[in-house]
Design a protein that fits this description.
This protein has 167 residues and is mostly helical. It has three helices and no strands. The chain has one domain.
C-alpha cells in the first residue's frame, strides 16, 4: 500500500526535484541556453554602448545648439539694425527723388505760367494795337472829313515819299 509518511513524501519530492533539474539541464544543453544568454548579454551591452555614443553625440549637438542660440540675440539685433539702415537709406533716397520731382514740377509750372503770361501779353498787345489802330483810323477819318484840304496834303506827301524811294 501507499505509505504517506513524511520520509516517503520527502524522498519522493527530492527525486522529482532531481529529475526536474536534470530535465531542465538537458533542455538547456540542447537549446544552448548559455550561448543565447551570452548573445543577449552581448546585444544588451552593445545597445548600452550605442546609447552612450548617441548620448554623447546628443550632448555635443545640444551644446552646439545652445551656443548658436546664445548668438541668436546678437544676430537678431544685427539683422534688425541692417534692416533699419536699409529702410533709412531707402527713405532718404525717396525723399531726395521726391524733392527733385517737386522742384521739376515747380519749374514746369513756372515755365507754363511764363508761357501763358507771354501769350496773354501778346494777345493783349494785339488787342490794344488793333484798338489803337481803329481809334487812330476813326480820328483820321474824322479829321479828313472836317478838312478836305488836309486830305489832299496827305496824298501829296505820300506821292512825294514814293518819288524819293530808289527802286
Amino acid at each position: 500500500m501507499l505509505d504517506f509518511s513524511f520520509a516517503n513524501i520527502l524522498h519522493s519530492n527530492v527525486i522529482n526535484f532531481a529529475i526536474m533539474i536534470a530535465l531542465f539541464g538537458y533542455i538547456a544543453y540542447k537549446l544552448d541556453v548559455m550561448q543565447k544568454i551570452e548573445d543577449m548579454r552581448a546585444s544588451i551591452q552593445k545597445k548600452v554602448e550605442e546609447s552612450d555614443t548617441l548620448k554623447a553625440d546628443a550632448i555635443k549637438e545640444f551644446e552646439s545648439v545652445k551656443e548658436s542660440l546664445g548668438n541668436v540675440e546678437a544676430e537678431t539685433q544685427a539683422i534688425v539694425k541692417k534692416a533699419q539702415d536699409t529702410a533709412n537709406t531707402i527713405e532718404q533716397k525717396t525723399k531726395e527723388e521726391l524733392d527733385k520731382s517737386v522742384e521739376l514740377i515747380r519749374q514746369n509750372v513756372q515755365k507754363q505760367v511764363d508761357s501763358e503770361e507771354k501769350q496773354v501779353q501778346g494777345e493783349l498787345l494785339k488787342s490794344v494795337s488793333s484798338s489803337s489802330i481803329e481809334i487812330a483810323q476813326r480820328q483820321i477819318k474824322t479829321a479828313l472829313d472836317k478838312d478836305k484840304e488836309l486830305h489832299r496834303k496827305y496824298i501829296e506827301d505820300f506821292i512825294n515819299s514814293i518819288d524819293k524811294i530808289d527802286v
